[in-house]
């Protein structure tokens, strides 16, 4: 096995991490189960979110054993690099069978969010909706200024906690990231996967354009171009599969 623990949790979470298979299998509090599974597990009075990565076939096992970091390791390394923009990392661990990767886990401290960015996107009656979008624009700007580009900047991966006078945002599912200086097009393309209505995307981009000191209409046009292109692409795939599309 291979593992790494955040130094601040070395004493309190080493046993938990080394025995994560047992704790994970015994726990029934699953909050997401698809290709990978997430569970909320309490340990030493700390609530954690544990993500179990499954490696389904021999090709991927060879690939992640010898040629590329596992998703668990990338999640941990990226969370350390990102810092305040994501829930606090606790550690990761990889297990091997006959020398090849079998399964792996990433553990982070649970962030007590109130909703994801999906809520203001779909709920037009949400209190303070427009302001949430503007605050989200500021958060995205801060990410980009720190050379952080989330490759899956989609509604379920952006958590929001509502405070008395402010909002706190965190990004999750961070094993696929880029860390680089971003062009204007890259910055504005990052909003495309949110699947926003044009008017809501315009609200966000107006605020964002002001922060980066760029022409607002120019930025809106670029953002809409990428948003429309992605929607056309995904809707075309759905039509080819015989799935009803609501434009």
TrEMBL record:
GO molecular function: protein kinase activity
SUPFAM superfamilies assigned to the protein according to its UniProt record, in alphabetical order: Protein kinase-like (PK-like)
Name this protein carries in UniProt: Protein kinase domain-containing protein
Species for this entry: Sulfurimonas autotrophica (strain ATCC BAA-671 / DSM 16294 / JCM 11897 / OK10)
